[in-house]
Structures are given as C-alpha cells and as structure tokens.
Fold:
Amino acid sequence: MGIKGLMIAAPSSGTGKTTVSIGIMKALTDMGLKVQPFKVGPDYIDTGFHYFASGNESHNLDSVMGSNNTVKEIYYHNSEGKDISIIEGVMGLFDGKAGNSLKGSSFEISRILGIPIVMVIDISASGRSAAAVVKGFRDFDKRALLKGVILNRAGSDYHCSMVKEAIETTTGIKVLGCIKRNNELKLGSRYLGLVTAAENQINDAYLKNLSSLIRNSIDLEQIVKISSTASKPSKYKPVIYNRREKEKCTIGIAYNKAFTFYYPENIELLKKFGAKIIYFDPVIDRKLPHMDGIYIGGGYPELYAGELSGNSALLAEIKEKIDDGMPVFAECGGYMYLSESINYGDAEYPMVGAIPARTHMEGLSLGYRKIYPAAPGEILKEGEKAMGHEFHYSRIVFNKSHSEAYKFENGKSEGYSSKNILSGYAHLYFPSNQNVPKRFVKQCVEYKNKTVE
Structure:
C-alpha cells in the first residue's frame, strides 16, 4: 500500500510557504485526517510550527547531513499509520548546497521519495508574470513532479482570477487555490529565521483562523488527490528505528523555551543504544532529576538569560555534576549555557561556568559542516567524521587555553573538549555517524557504574 504525500515548495524564501504549509496541515487535521509533517533541511523552527498544527512530531529530511537511505527511513517509518504526509520545502525548489548542485534541495528530496510538488507563489506584486515563473520552474528540470500551484497574497478576487487564468492557460498546471493578503496571520521572524512557535503564540485561535482561511481558499480535496499520486515506497535498510538495546543509563535532556533545537532522530538513537531519556527545565527546575549524563541542545538562551541565570541552584548543581565527571554533550545554545556568562543587551548573565569562556552576541556563522575531531576524543574518534550545521549570532571568547572539540573541512576549529565534555556551536546529526550517540551512552554508563561503586 502506498503512502499519500506531497511537498509544499516555492520559488524562493519569503513567499509564505511556512504559513500555507501549517495552514494545510491544520485544515486537513480538522477534517479528521492524521497528518504527518516533515521539513526539508536542518531547520528546527518550522518543525515546531508543524507540531502545533498537526499534533504530530515533525521530522527533518536532509540529504546533505543524511544519506538517501536515511531520508527514506525517516519518511516511510514516520508516515506509517498516517493518512497523509506533508513535506514543507526549504528556500526555492531547486536551491541546494551549491549553485551548481541540487544536493540538499527540496527537488532532490522529492526525487528520492517520488513525491508530487505543489508550489506556493507570492503574487502580491505580479500578474501574468506569475505564469512565467511557474513555466520556468516546470521547464527548468522536467523531472520535477509539479502538480499544482497555490497563489498567495492576492489583492482581490479579480487578481486571483487573472493570475489563475494566466497560469492554467499557459502551463496547463492547475491552480488549487488563492489566498488573499492577511497580515494578521503572518508569522514573525528573528535573526535566525522565523521565531519559534512559542514566541509567535501559535495558539488555538490563530490556528482556527488559519485553518478556516485555508479551507475557504484552497481545494483540499485536490490536495489529497494529488498526494495519492506519490510513488510507492522504495527499498531501504532500517538503521535508526530498528532494535533497541536494553536501558542501561539515564540521559537528561534540557528542554524548555530556551532549548528546543533537537533532532528527533538524535534522541531516537540515544534510546537505540540503551539510554532512558528524561527531560528537565533549566528555568523552572531547582534540582536535577537523577541522571547519568546531560544533553543540552540549541535554542535561544540569550533571550531567557535572566531566567536561566536566576536559577543559581541548578547552575551550581550542573557545574558540580560536571566537575564530578558526569558526561555532557552540548550544542550551540547549550554550549553558551555551559560558558561562564552570556552578554546580552547591556547585561552580563552568569551561567554554568563549566567552560572557561564568555559568550558575546556578535557575528554570523551558518552552513553545513563536515565535522572532524580537533583532537582524539571519547566520542568522535580520530579519522571519523559526522555531519552537522552551524547557525548562530554569537561568539564564545575563552580566557585561557583549552582543547577544541571539532575541526571543519575548511581548516577552522571550534568548541570545547575535555574528558567528559563535548561541546561546540556545531549541531551534530547523529544518523551521519551512529558511533557518536553510541559512545556518549557508553560514557554515561561508565559514569553510572563509577558513582555506584
């Protein structure tokens, strides 16, 4: 039996693709369908919106950080038992890792999975020219399974009908709907892209209004019909969602409004190798629950620096546990949290202090990374690599010499490494090297056995 699925793509970023995607997810959910959301690329923020809209955890499909097999496994496994899968694309349909490559593009993901594409076109400043855009995308690579178009930010009914006629008569591609300009439903943006779902206050009222707008503007029956043209699942080898080892240690994950950036597959692989996962809130919890290791992901700790800093009891306990040898794996925001302080605005906020450095909000660094150990370590061994990405507007300044965690293909290195700390700005994608979660779990088991003794 096939999996119903389609991709919501666009000519570029800024077309309203995310708003339309979550609107379709919510509208289909309101119709009683079980919707499984996905996001092309490494983005953490859109997946948060998807969860609020569908009630199901969204997963990233990334052909740069992961193999084709990984993309298939994540998509097929999580689509099981669902009525329809909706994939939100990234940037423009053909935008990938490089100008001469489709690697990592929405188009490539569509090709790997045999998924039909529906494009969102911003027509706020165009008329018949929108047909040229659609025709250009259709003809740029005729392998693209472009099955429909959604017009967004129209000025009037006449504007909708004019552009619809131009596209359908010129290209033969059906216009599935037209959405009028509506600033009240526009999602906000932050320096790393969209603000998180929590910051946007994506509440029931917002989703209800968005769902109503989509149901009144888009032919959802056609959306479902197009999704049924997706190719049947092709063969893949299960390497993530396969046999789990017996639980042998407990890993605590920092999760709250400051730390929300985690790949579900990273957590799944920790479980696969024997970790029991629990969560704690670095703002609210005054004491750590029992754990044998800590995983602190990314987010926006600078926005909540005052609240994080105010929980001095937890900061002190985390520092004490790390000094005692408890393993900790920290990425980006978690790396900042482990430093001595975060400078944000006109204030400096004390943090854990496990890393001899201070965090300053300045400079942009983003992009995919091939990640190698800067020195032989406990988790990432010499001669190995993992894939990941950087995406931050801060800089950590060390006040004494230290061992760095990672080095990149371009020769640069970053992060902090000690016997029980592996941390840096790079977000590691565990499916790219399963030895990373496996060894972290092993490290946590060794710490557990040591403390029992």
User: Anything to note?
Assistant: Residues 5-227 form a domain with the Rossmann fold fold (CATH 3.40.50.300). The chain is about 35% helix and 25% strand. The radius of gyration is 23 Å. The CA atoms of residues 105 and 212 lie 31 Å apart.
